[in-house]
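Researcher: Re-running this chain for the archive, since the previous output was lost when a drive failed. Same request as before.
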Amino acid sequence: MQGTCDHCGKVFNVKMKTKHHPKKVIETYFKCPHCKHNYTCFATNPDIRKMQEDIKPIKNNIFRSAMQREINEKMKILKGEIMK
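Model: Regenerated structure tokens:
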């Protein structure tokens, strides 16, 4: 997959990486190889990863959608915390 850096404008191949933070938080990100700008895609902790596993077998779309919204909100908050 290719991306264009918002900072330097160069096109590059996106290579996803993971970084482990305290409290078992895992950040998934990529960097522009030209200017080294960091793009955090998402972050998870043990609770979020458990919720992601729990949602896999659920067939009810309404319940699944509600759980996914909760997961997304928790990931958004966690991402904000690690980007400080």
